[in-house]
Design goal:
single chain, mainly alpha, 0% strand
């Protein structure tokens, strides 16, 4: 790959990474973590951990595609999409149960499981499915393993920055409103949980009908 085309592909990877973060299923999933976050640095951390998990999964998939020359079949991609739908339903149902049982009243300065580990795992699931599979089509056209891995890195940086911006934009209104939205916090979280469940069911039915 010559230098101009190399830079073009890397630039494309960065743009695709930014765009990938705006996929509806990604936004719905991340809102289940941001429902009660009014601290911008914590919200940004959630977005960054999601992007990191996404990059880890895509890196592993890219190594398999480039290094081992094993293509990602449509059958596998569809099943991974079903996994994403199931995850959205689980995230939504868990948030609804959490609000209902008042678990959200216990607040910590840093909850590693909610702010770090869980978004990381959700990002990993997203990184193995959806439009990330389309990026592997680009990887399959890259002859150099090093260029392919560099493409993955640039794509991952783009997705991390994209989700960071999305998390910031979603949390900023809560930050600005401050205590004025405190009374509505329960309703916001409940609505977020219901949205996640509904979107997950919609995604699952859509994929199932496509497979039928």
């Amino acid at each position: 790959m010559n230098e101009p085309s190399n830079l073009l592909v890397l630039g494309l990877g960065f743009i695709l990474g930014l765009k990938h973060a705006t996929d509806p299923d990604h936004i719905v999933a991340i809102t289940t973590f941001l429902g009660k976050e009014r601290r911008l640095h914590r919200a940004c951390g959630i977005g960054l951990f999601w992007g990191l998990g996404h990059t880890i999964a895509l890196s592993i998939a890219g190594i398999i595609v480039i290094g081992l020359k094993i293509p990602v079949s449509k059958w596998v991609a569809d099943r991974l999409e079903l996994g994403v739908a199931a995850m959205l339903i689980i995230l939504g149902a868990r948030l609804i149960a959490k609000v209902h049982q008042h678990w959200h009243e216990h607040h910590h300065d840093f909850d590693w499981h909610r702010i770090g580990l869980r978004p990381l795992l959700v990002g990993i699931v997203h990184g193995t499915a959806g439009s990330a599979a389309l990026t592997l089509l680009v990887l399959s056209t890259i002859s150099s393993t090093m260029n392919g891995l560099l493409y993955i890195l640039v794509f991952g940086i783009g997705s991390m920055l994209g989700m960071l911006v999305i998390s910031l934009l979603l949390s900023l209104p809560l930050q600005l409103a401050g205590d004025r939205l405190a009374a509505a916090n329960r309703q916001i979280q409940m609505s977020t949980g219901i949205l996640s469940c509904v979107f997950g069911l919609y995604l699952a039915v859509t994929i199932w009908l496509k497979l039928s």
